[in-house]
Amino acid sequence: MSSDDIDPSEFETDSEDAGPPLTATDLPKVRAELTEWMDAREFQRRVHGFDKRSRPSTDHFNDPERKFLREAWVLAELSKHNQFVQIRLADVKEEPPDGFARPERLSKLRLPAPGFRVAAWAMNIVLKNGCSMIRLKTVWNEPSLFPRRWKRPLATN
Amino acid sequence: MERAEFIPAALEKAISDKLKQDLTWSLFALVVDLTFIIDGGMKQAQIKQAIADFKDRYGPEFQHLWVLWKDKVF
Question: Is the dihedral of CA A42, A45, A47, A50 positive or negative?
Answer without folding.
Answer: negative
